[in-house]
Amino acid sequence: EKAVNLKKDLAEMQEWMTQAEEEYLEKDFEYKSPEELENAVEEMKRAKEDVLQKEVRVKILKDNIKMLATKVPSSGQDLATELNVVLENYQLLCNRIRGKCHTLEEVWSCWIELLHYLDLETAWLNNLEERVQMTGNLPDKLDAVNDALESLESVLRHPADNRTQIRELGQTLIDGGILDDIISEKLEVFNARYEELSHLAVSRQIALEQQLQTMRETDHMLQVLQESLGDLDRQLTSYLTDRIDAFQMPQEAQ
Asked: Which residue windows are coiled coil (predicted)?
């Protein structure tokens, strides 16, 4: 009777493993939204816990069959053969579910990381847009233009590492068919805004550099002219002091 019960337990265990495999490993999942992906991750975590909890039952079965084999070798030997099959199938099921759970957790982590880098770069784009707008109505002063140019250039020196991460993470998920529509849309919007603002900022940078160069040249010319006028003023003053008649002066002084 004990052998019959153990045989029944082995059959039930095998049936449960078959159902678990069908439910957790053979279903075709489509992750078209973050909610679907998150639910799949949580489901696989529960599946892993559920399968690992059966380890106690498997151990009890194994001990009972060994004990029976010492008392009734003939019955125990047959059950031991069935037990080995169940043990192999159970270990395989555990490994496969662990692997799928790990994969889904990695995919979810990849998605969260992508959102993180998108947030960082969006904040940078907002800052860049603000700096560009600040260059629109500058006072016609050299210091103001120079400060605006330096401020814009400091933002433009932003490293490209984050954008590289966005591109690689997005492509990895899209290649796996994970949230591909959502990610493609997010990347399209981000890349379009990045290209537009980058070109606008570089154009404004070039315009400010040209404006600054013109203002510096003008300042230099004014300085030279002022020095020349100063020299002339001093020369004329000396002429007046010495009471020199205008017709006795050089032509340029007249």
From this structure: 3-64
